[in-house]
Amino acid sequence: MGEINQTLVSEFLLLGLSGYPKIEIVYFALILVMYLVILIGNGVLIIASIFDSHFHTPMYFFLGNLSFLDICYTSSSVPSTLVSLISKKRNISFSGCAVQMFFGFAMGSTECLLLGMMAFDRYVAICNPLRYPIILSKVAYVLMASVSWLSGGINSAVQTLLAMRLPFCGNNIINHFACEILAVLKLACADISLNIITMVISNMAFLVLPLMVIFFSYMFILYTILQMNSATGRRKAFSTCSAHLTVVIIFYGTIFFMYAKPKSQDLIGEEKLQALDKLISLFYGVVTPMLNPILYSLRNKDVKAAVKYLLNKKPIH
Q1: Distances (CA, A) of 10 to 5, 91, 158, 169, 179
Q2: Where does the sequence pass through the membrane (predicted)?
Q3: Residue ranges of domains in the chain
Q4: Which of 95-99, 254-258, 285-289 shows the highest mean pLDDT?
Q5: What dihedral angle (degrees, nearest 10) is formed by the CA atoms of 148, 119, 53, 300?
Q6: What per-residue confidence (pLDDT) applies to 267?
Q7: How far apart are alpha carbons 101 and 12 in whole angstroms?
């Protein structure tokens, strides 16, 4: 009977905000607007980084990768969330859930590594400006970005395969907007010790290690800036780092809350905690990708000038 029950789950039901019907319309409009801002804002940054030769530098190459990643990440879950909110269709197939989980986890893992490499880029640019073209040559920064994407994909493939091999015995309701890996693991009716161990290793490699790179990079950057005699130079150095540092604080603040523990054991106020998890998931999954182009463009004169140039550029007949 156990084996029969394990094969019954062929799809999952995404609960989302089904308990709050009045909020769903507001939530739909809010997510739709933010998703459009994500597509337009990040799309403009990608176009600028490709077609403007002034942006063919390591910093803007990483920024273009980050923008492309944000579009991929949100597109893996936001459209289905919008459909479920407006049509009340909340079911997702087993394979569809696995695909959604893979892309979500892969993009999150890759973004952690990219943010670490962007911090290293700023460290070299400010602390070792004369060696910057040598250390971060085109071959070097393209390789760094490629390793980030490949590592994130492999990590996600391992986590997804380990999660989807588990038996799911009857309960197929995911108390989330998307097939988020922690929410799926809660439905498993088998021992998830291996999943916990691999997620702890994953957290160390993709959360803690890049964060240490970011921390020490900014410690050296701060020390170098404080040694500068020119107030203008200090302001310029701070200005080039402020956008990235803001993104790091927002990104890591939310992702650590969500993924630092593989499975929650809280019993008191469970419904309130689940509602809080959903709101934080929204902040991490939609607000952060929306803020990236805003932070990097509004505070960067070069980006604003490039966007104006591209918009005013006449096509050649």
Answers
A1: 11, 10, 21, 11, 14
A2: 25-48, 60-86, 98-120, 140-162, 204-226, 238-259, 279-298
A3: 11-258+275-299
A4: 95-99
A5: 130
A6: 42
A7: 13
